[in-house]
Amino acid sequence: MRHKFIDIPRQTLPERSVVERVHDYKEYASRMEDGPIVKQAERCMDCGTPFCHVGDMIGQETIGCPIHNLIPEWNKLVSDQDWYRAFERLMETNNFPEFTGRVCPAPCEGSCTLGISEDPVAIKSIERTIIDRAFEEGWVKPRHVQKRTGRRVAIIGSGPAGLAAADQLNQLGHAVTIYEKADEAGGLLFYGIPNMKLEKDVVRRRVRLLEAEGIRFKTGVNVGTDVTIESLRHTYDAVILATGAQKQRTLGIDGDDATGVEPAMDYLTESTRTLGGKSLDARYDANGKDVIVIGGGDTGADCVATAIRQGAKSVTQFGKHPEKGMFRAPERPWPLQPDTLSTDYAYAEAIEYFDRDPRTYLIRSNRVIKQGDQVVGIETERMEKIVKPDGQATFFVVDGSVETYPADLVLVAIGFERPERELRKVGIEANHDYTSNVEGVFVAGDARRGQSLIVWAIREGREVADTVDGYLNTCQQQLKTSS
Ligand SMILES: Cc1cc2nc3c(=O)[nH]c(=O)nc-3n(C[C@H](O)[C@H](O)[C@H](O)COP(=O)(O)OP(=O)(O)OC[C@H]3O[C@@H](n4cnc5c(N)ncnc54)[C@H](O)[C@@H]3O)c2cc1C
Ligand code: SF4
C-alpha cells in the first residue's frame, strides 16, 4: 500500500490575511473544511509504536501529548469521516479540546513518527476541527449527573486546571464550587491569552456548559481576602488550590520603576478588558509609541501582536537566547521537540506590517533611560553564548557593544516566579502527588508545577480530581467503619 503522506503535503488551519486581521482582535486562524482535514488525517501512517500520545517529560521537555490524546485512533475515525466517534474518542482524554485545538503548542507534533523524515501530521488542526464540528452539530451538550455523593469540593481558581478538576469531580457526583477572584472565569484562558488566539466566547461557552452540568461559579471572590482557606476547609470536604503562577519576574535594573515600564500580564489583561467595553488606560496604550518587549517567549509574542493592533509606531522584542535554526539540531533528536525557528502569528504580522522581524537576539538590558519619570529608552549590550563540552551554556558580554533603543512603552515579559513562595504565604506546601501539608487541601496546575501549558494544566486537573475522589471515598469508608 502506498502511504498517503507521500502524496499529501501537510496543511494546517487557514489564517486570515495579516492586512485584515491586524485591524481587529478576532481569532487569526479558522476551522478547516472537512475535505482537506480528512486528507490531513489520512497522512497518519498508524505507526506501530506512536510517540505522539506518550505525554511524558525527558528532562525539561514534553514528549507527546500530556493528556494522552488517542491521536492515531481519531485520525483513523476522521479518515473514515466517522466524526461523531472521533469526537467521542477525543472527549475521553481531553476536557477542553476547543482550547488546546486553538492554543496548544502541540508537543504531539514534535514527537510524531512521520516527523523523523517528513512534516508531521497536523494533529492540532485535526483536533480543533473535530471539536468545532461537534459544537456545530450540537453534539456537545450538558451531561447531567445521575447520582450525587453528598460530598462537597471547593476549587480556588478557574483556569484550565481548576476547570478540568471541577469537570471530573462533578461527573463523579461530587458537588463542586469554583472560587475565582477575577470577574470572569477561565484564568489565563480569559485574561492572559489574547483574543487573536482564543476568543472569549469560546471560554464562556465552556463555562456555561459546566454550569449547566451543576458546577457553581463564584467569581469576584478573592480567597485569602474575602474568605479564608480555613473557612472553606470547614465548609467543604476537600479544597483544591488551582491558583496558577501569575507572579511576574521584574527587570531589576536601574530605572525599572519608570512610568511606561509595565508588566506584560497587566498590559494583556487591560487590553482584553477594553474589548469588553472598558476604556484603555493611557499607560497600556501603544498607539503611536516605540514599544520594546523584553523577553523572547510566547507572552512577549502576544504583546507584539497586541501592540500592533493598538497602532504602535514600532515594536522590537529583546531575547537573551540566540536565533534558532531552521532544522532540528543534532543535540535535539526525535522525539524531543525540534525547537526550530518558527514565525508565530505575532511575528508574521510584525514582518508584514513593519517590514522587519521584531526579534532581536542575544541582547541584555542594562538600564532604563528616563526623562523625568517617563521611560524614553533602554540601554543594552550584546551577548555571546558559549556552550562548553559538558553542555553547560555561559553568556559573555561583547565588549564595546553598548546601544540605545528609543522606547515610550516597555513591556516586561521575562517569565513568572515559582509558585512555592505564594503558597507558603498561606501556609501550604504542595507535594508531588497533588496533596499538601494540610489534610484535605490539594494543589494542581501552574500553582504546583510553575508556569506551563494549558494541556499540562488539564492533565493536572484530571489527576488531582482522581486523588481527591480517592480521598473522599476513603473518608466515607472511615465514617462508615466508625459509625
Ligand atoms: C500571556 C500568556 C500566554 C499564554 N499562552 C499560552 C498558549 O498559547 N498555549 C498554552 O498552552 N499555554 C499558554 N500559556 C500558559 C497557560 O495559560 C497556563 O499554563 C495555564 O493557564 C495554567 O492554568 P492554571 O489553571 O494552572 O492557572 P491559571 O490559568 O493561571 O488560573 C489561575 C486562576 O486562579 C485565580 N486565583 C489566583 N489566586 C486566587 C485567589 N486567591 N482567589 C481566587 N482566585 C484566585 C486567578 O485569578 C486565575 O483565574 C500562556 C500564559 C500567558 C501568561
Ligand atoms: S492537546 Fe496539544 S499535545 Fe495533545 S493532541 Fe492536542 S495539540 Fe497535541
From TrEMBL:
Q: Name one GO molecular function term.
A: oxidoreductase activity, acting on the CH-NH2 group of donors, NAD or NADP as acceptor
Pathway given in the UniProt record: Amino-acid biosynthesis
Q: Where do the FAD/NAD(P)-binding domain residues begin and end?
A: 152-461
Tell me which UniProt keywords the record has, alphabetically. Answer: Amino-acid biosynthesis, Glutamate biosynthesis, Oxidoreductase
Q: What is this protein called?
A: Glutamate synthase subunit beta
InterPro entries in the record, alphabetically? DPD_II (IPR028261), FAD/NAD-bd_sf (IPR036188), FAD/NAD-binding_dom (IPR023753), Glut_synth_ssu1 (IPR006005), Glutamate_Synthase (IPR051394), Helical_ferredxn (IPR009051)
- Example GO BP: glutamate biosynthetic process
Superkingdom: Bacteria
Q: Which Pfam families does the protein's record reference? A: Fer4_20 (PF14691), Pyr_redox_2 (PF07992)
Q: Which residues form the Dihydroprymidine dehydrogenase domain?
A: 22-138
